User: Which sequence fits this backbone?
């Protein structure tokens, strides 16, 4: 798949809330995932698909209620695409918060090999 095709598929799946399918179908086994400093207690850097899946599970376990989320259509260049996205969420034992972020994804040989998120922690 081209970068555009990967970006389109990512967007299609994220709109349906199918993050597990995204991980299984679009991510490289050697994916690198980077998060900025934050208070979510999930790892800031993971390497490998299994660690990335574990990070997703850990994040899910922190959530009491997901009120809403969004992902805007991707902006695509040769080997990267980026999406603005966000969520309105209540963490367990905390007040409701909103987070806006940018996800930048690097594609090689039809797979996402690196994802990096940019955000200020929840407002």
Assistant:
């Amino acid at each position: 798949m081209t970068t555009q095709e990967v970006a389109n598929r990512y967007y299609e799946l994220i709109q349906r809330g199918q993050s597990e399918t995204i991980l299984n179908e679009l991510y490289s086994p050697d994916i690198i995932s980077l998060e900025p400093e934050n208070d979510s207690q999930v790892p800031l850097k993971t390497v490998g698909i299994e660690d990335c899946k574990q990070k997703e599970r850990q994040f899910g376990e922190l959530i009491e209620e997901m009120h809403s989320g969004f992902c805007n259509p991707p902006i695509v260049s040769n080997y990267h695409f980026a999406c603005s996205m966000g969520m309105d969420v209540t963490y367990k034992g905390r007040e409701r918060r909103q987070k806006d972020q940018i996800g930048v994804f690097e594609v090689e040989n039809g797979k996402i090999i690196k994802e990096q998120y940019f955000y200020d922690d929840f407002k």
User: Anything to note?
Assistant: The CA atoms of residues 5 and 110 lie 8 Å apart. The chain has a mean pLDDT of 93. The helical segments are 3-15, 19-26, 49-62.
